[in-house]
Amino acid sequence: MFSVCLLMRWLFVVDYVFVLISRKDFDGFKKLFHRFLQVKGPSVDWAKISRPPEELIQPYDRIKARGLPDNIAVSLNKLAVVKLNGGLGTSMGCKGPKSLISVRNENTFLDLTVKQIEHLNKTFNADVPLVLMNSFNTDEDTKKILQKYKHHQVKIHTFNQSRYPRINKESLLPIAKSMGTSGENAEAWYPPGHGDIYASFQNSGLLDKLIAEGKEYIFVSNIDNLGATVDLFILNHLMSQPADKRCEFIMEVTDKTRADVKGGTLIQYEDRLRLLEIAQVPKAHVDEFKSVTKFKIFNTNNLWISLPAIKRLQEKNSMDLEIIVNPKTLDGGLNVIQLETAVGAAIKSFNNAMGVNVPRSRFLPVKTSSDLLLVMSNLYTLDAGSLTMSKKREFPTTPHVKLGSSFTKVQEFLARFENIPDMLELDHLTVSGDVTFGKNVSLKGTVIIIANHGDRIDIPAGAMLENKIVSGNLRILDH
User: Fold this and answer.
1) Residue 195, annotated ligand binder?
2) What is the C-alpha separation between 468 and 447, in angstroms, rounded?
């Protein structure tokens, strides 16, 4: 498919591009690209896929039922928390790192994370550090803001994931003209997905530093998942295993709903537990993959991973992560690809790996303004940086909220609410068009508000909408 001449030309161009980048970044990208050239067809044989044995997906309640020892602080002192902090807030209309968006009571994602870990350290007199995996997009702004936490009882470390060049889809050559990340080069580079954590962690020296300090496990999660807090019962399960049967990798999974059909799932494949992503599924089986009945769980990306195991696998160069080919079209119309990997895909490389089926409350990502409305509302209470479902809510599930394009950007979203409505008894909310909400609005049951093009709907202060459809001329009809 690719001639030797093309490969030699590619290596010459890439070597030039990487002159000023670390040799380890270059070696990492060269290895990834070489594997990309060798891959032919789907990375899984569908006939070999089976459901994991029950003992490999433990119910959370079973782990919690074992209780906690009096000396749980000993286990905490062997843990570090890693937050994936490479993403920008552009999808929500914000500049800079997504972790610096205010999500609750003027607290940012990063504020809440620091408060959670500080509370742990104070409560148990422990020393759990926070580690941020930044990207070249977020590193500078994040480091500036870290000064505000220097008097908090939590040590904060940072390291950068790799910087790889985007590849022209046609020529398969890097599009970067120089090492810069501005001007004509602004779109030439990308961070290669969170699967890069293993190599970057080791390259930074932080992996060895934490091991030397007596840390044995990291708890890894996306910084925008507000449900991803340190769980003492899962930690205790890890630490209480015999040394020769120590679990090296736990993936938290939760029950799939129709909103999660594209999420990765755990399968048994060639006698190993493995993460199956939708990108790996042959086209003929995509509908089967999305089935809630066959694949009942999905990956929350809350992961507990052994530090010595990471070191062992990295030194042996035996962590084989499936390549995700992510096509992009740049502003100028150029079609490019970026090669990525996922952190959870490494599960197949670790010994005694398992999944834990956790409550849905541990998966509370804020990807859109609809998610933001939920976490800002009285559906949740905030305590020591952690959000929990209000005891006043009669149902354990969160409402289904769908806000239209007028609410996409955070600033526009905030301008449309004088304050956040009472949503304790809400089941479903759809809002479309030019709609604003006055103070002390209450939403119950199913509420649909649609302002047609050119119309505007102002929900008045103090309004209570229960099972209503509000149309463009503000007629209120029973639903």
Assistant:
1) no
2) 5
Q: Any known ligand binding at 224?
A: yes
The residues, ordered by sequence, that sit 6+ positions from 461 with a Cβ below 8 Å of its Cβ are 418, 438, 439, 440, 441
Kindly give, in sequence order, each residue whose CB lies less than 8 Å from that of residue 123, ignoring residues fewer than 6 positions away: none
The three-state secondary structure class of 273 is strand
Tokens representing 192 are: 């290669």
Catalytic residue status for 155 = no
Sequence length of the chain is 479
| Measured distance CA(479)–CA(457) in Å, rounded | 18
The residue whose two tokens read 């997504």 is: 98
194 labelled ligand-binding = yes
CB 463 within 8 A of CB 421: no
Query: Considering 367, 392, 402, 439, which one is annotated as catalytic?
Result: 367
Distance (Å, whole) CA 208 – CA 213: 9
Element (H, E) at 413: helix 410-415
Per-residue pLDDT of the chain (479 residues; tens, 9 = 90+): 444 455 555 555 555 545 445 677 778 888 899 888 887 666 788 888 988 998 999 999 999 999 999 999 999 999 999 999 999 998 898 899 999 999 999 999 999 999 999 999 999 999 999 999 999 999 999 999 999 999 999 999 999 999 999 999 998 888 887 776 666 677 889 999 999 999 999 999 999 999 999 999 999 999 999 999 999 999 999 999 888 889 999 999 999 987 788 889 999 998 899 999 888 888 888 888 888 888 899 999 999 999 999 999 999 999 889 898 889 998 888 999 999 999 999 999 999 999 999 999 999 999 999 999 999 999 999 999 999 999 999 988 899 999 999 999 999 999 999 999 999 999 999 999 999 999 999 999 999 999 988 889 999 999 999 999 998 756 444 45
Helix (H/G/I), strand (E/B), else coil: 261: coil
3-state secondary structure of 457: strand
Phi and psi based region of residue 301 (left: phi greater than 0; alpha: psi -120 to 50; beta: remaining): left
The reply, when asked if residue 116 is annotated as ligand binding, is: no
Closest residue by Cα to residue 433 from 380, 471, 385, 387: 471
Whose CA is closest to 83, among 111, 107, 106?
Answer: 111
